[in-house]
Input
Amino acid sequence: MAELKRTPLYPCYAGNPGVRCIDFGGWELPVQFAGIQKEHDAVRRRAGLFDVSHMGEFRVTGRFAEAFLQHMLTNDVTRLADGQAQYTLMCYPDGGVVDDLLVYRISADRFMLVVNASNIEKDYDWLREHLIGDVELENLSDELALLALQGPNVAAVMEKLVAGPETSGLKPFHFTADVSVAGTKALISRTGYTGEDGFELYVPASGAAGVWDALLAAGGPLGLEPAGLGARDTLRFEARLPLYGQELSRTITPLEAGLGVFVKLGKADFIGREALLKQKAEGVPRKLVGIEMVDRGIPRAHYPVFAGDRQIGEVTTGTQSPTLKRNLGLALIEAGYAALGTGLLVDIRGKRLKAEVVKTPFYTRTPKE
Output
């Protein structure tokens, strides 16, 4: 068995008496510290700190860097100004998803891409395969650590370490580079993957431990707690944020996943555009919907979904919502059954239990005044 990889932050929590680490795509990562419910609540009510250093970072530079990314990605990269970030997707010619990612514009000829950990090698090879002249692609994943600070109190935590507009004035999907945090230079962005306010800190691997410790020390009085991948998954699920491999995949298009707002079909040609134009014109055959159990039971990933005696799809993610205490799921089903209030059946361990299509996102935060 191959030895699991560890992030630069692993020594910071390896000795924590409550931490439980798991094999996550070849990485030894914390699934929880004090319990998923407790960490989930901390992020919703106060603040949580995640080690997400397993994510991948690529640098794209050169005179035609923007044109290259415009061809590779579904969103419109030309809308970005320096210091802005954008959620986007990278597709195959048939419209299936290579990955969903963030693109950061540092300057007109310098960008950073942040990709899913499980797709780093695949994404890098796909981008290299399509490189054009005067564009360079570098994999920075081993050089950087990534800390995600999430929750309603995060701005107050950051202001204790970084006073000034780098944090208090940073708008959503903007970033500031070369900010000193606990003696380490960081790129700080404000995106998030939990449905709450949040900051991401990209720091050199060598300085990551000091930043982790400083954040926990500064945030302790404000209720900051370390949080694991378990809470990260339940948080993003409540906010209807997709997870690659579940709501998105080689066989699920962005339009089926309800992410059409990030697919700019009116821009110049990009990989997958023709297939997605055709799918939109003909009608999206499947749709990702929210479901709530009517009968007692919890829908889980890959549970079959039925309309009468016919299977029409399957659950992609499901759990008992830690915030709402309702048994909820996301399901990819035939489009004809996607209307709100439609009755469905979910096969849970051989029993077909009643459910219905409900509105998403399940949770939407109320901004602090």
About this structure: The CA atoms of residues 295 and 359 lie 18 Å apart. The domain at 10-50+142-238 is CATH 3.30.1360.120 (Gyrase A; domain 2). The two ends are 51 Å apart (CA to CA).
